[in-house]
């Protein structure tokens, strides 16, 4: 009757994953909810993303000209 008691790793791991899932859901909806509700922030976000994409494409094109 000298069985060792489990150290509770399974329970801690379940809480860890539950906390990760809850944190992801809250973070996702904070960002997406803000973009859905505020038109000015949505426009600013997509304008920023568009400008960033353009800068990346220009940098890649310049790099290809430099290499080739």
UniProtKB/TrEMBL annotation:
InterPro entries per the UniProt record, alphabetical: RLP23-like
PANTHER family (alphabetical): LRR RECEPTOR-LIKE KINASE, LRR RECEPTOR-LIKE SERINE_THREONINE-PROTEIN KINASE GSO1
GO cellular component: membrane
Origin: domain of life: Eukaryota
Compartment(s): Membrane
Topological relation to the membrane, as annotated: Single-pass type I membrane protein
Keyword Transmembrane belongs to the record: yes
Transmembrane regions listed in the UniProt entry: 15-36
Major location (coarse): membrane
Keyword set, alphabetical order: Glycoprotein, Membrane, Receptor, Signal, Transmembrane, Transmembrane helix
Protein name: Uncharacterized protein
């Amino acid at each position: 009757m000298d069985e060792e008691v489990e150290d509770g790793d399974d329970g801690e791991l379940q809480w860890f994953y539950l906390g990760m899932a809850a944190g992801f859901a809250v973070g996702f909806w904070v960002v997406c909810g803000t973009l859905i509700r505020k038109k000015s922030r949505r426009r600013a976000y997509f304008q920023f993303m568009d400008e960033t994409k353009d800068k990346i494409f220009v940098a890649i094109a310049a790099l290809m000209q430099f290499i080739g």
